Automatic annotation (TrEMBL):
Family (UniProt): Belongs to the DksA family.
Main location: cytoplasm
Gene of this entry: dksA
Domain Zinc finger DksA/TraR C4-type: 109-144
BP GO terms, sorted: regulation of gene expression
Native source organism of the sequence: Erythrobacter crassostreae
Protein name (Swiss-Prot/TrEMBL): RNA polymerase-binding transcription factor DksA
InterPro entries per record: DksA_N, DksA_RNA_pol-bd, Znf_DskA_TraR
Quaternary structure annotation from Swiss-Prot or TrEMBL: Interacts directly with the RNA polymerase.
Compartments it resides in: Cytoplasm
Listed PROSITE patterns: ZF_DKSA_2 (PS51128)
Length: 152
C-alpha cells in the first residue's frame, strides 16, 4: 500500500504543479481535455488520501486503548461517538471504492461520460460530485426505477 500511496502522492504533486491555485475547469475549455482529466485525477487522489488519513487517525485512536470513562453516562456518550465514527469510516471506505472506480474510468478514457447514455456528465456535476457516473437525467431515472422496485 505504501507504494500505491507514494505513487498517488507523486501524481498529485505533478498535477498540482500544472494548475494555478484557483483553477477550476471551464465550459470554455474542451470537455475532458488532458487538462480536465489531470484536474479531476488530482481532485480524486486528494480526496482519497484525505479519507485514508482520517481512517488512519481513527485506527490509531482505537489502538490507543478502550474507552475508560469512569462515569457510565460519559462512557455511553463515548461509545456512541465511536459508533458514529466507525459508521462514518465505513461510508468513507465505500467512497474510496467509488473514487478508485472513477480513477479507473480516467485511465480507460471513460471518465466524465454517462455510463448509461455515453453523454457528457457535465463539469458542474463532476465538480460537485467527482465520482458521478451518470448525467443528472440518467441518475434521476435510475432513482425512480429503484423507488418503484422498492415500493412493489
Amino acid at each position: 500500500m505504501a507504494t500505491a500511496v507514494s505513487k498517488e502522492t507523486e501524481i498529485l504533486e505533478k498535477a498540482k504543479s500544472m494548475f494555478a491555485p484557483d483553477y477550476s475547469p471551464s465550459e470554455d475549455e474542451v470537455y475532458m481535455s488532458d487538462k480536465h482529466v489531470a484536474y479531476f485525477r488530482m481532485l480524486l487522489i486528494e480526496w482519497k488520501l484525505s479519507i485514508r488519513d482520517a481512517a488512519d487517525q481513527t485506527l490509531q485512536s482505537l489502538a490507543d486503548g478502550p474507552i475508560r470513562e469512569a462515569d457510565l453516562n460519559d462512557r455511553a456518550s463515548s461509545e456512541t461517538d465511536w459508533g458514529i465514527e466507525l459508521r462514518t469510516r465505513d461510508r468513507q471506505r465505500k467512497l474510496v471504492s467509488k473514487i478508485e472506480s472513477a480513477l479507473r474510468r480516467i485511465d480507460e478514457g471513460e471518465y466524465g461520460y454517462c455510463e448509461v447514455t455515453g453523454d457528457p456528465i457535465g463539469l458542474k456535476r463532476l465538480i460537485a460530485r467527482p465520482v458521478a457516473t451518470m448525467t443528472v437525467e440518467s441518475q434521476e431515472a435510475h432513482e425512480r426505477r429503484e423507488k418503484v422496485s422498492r415500493d412493489t
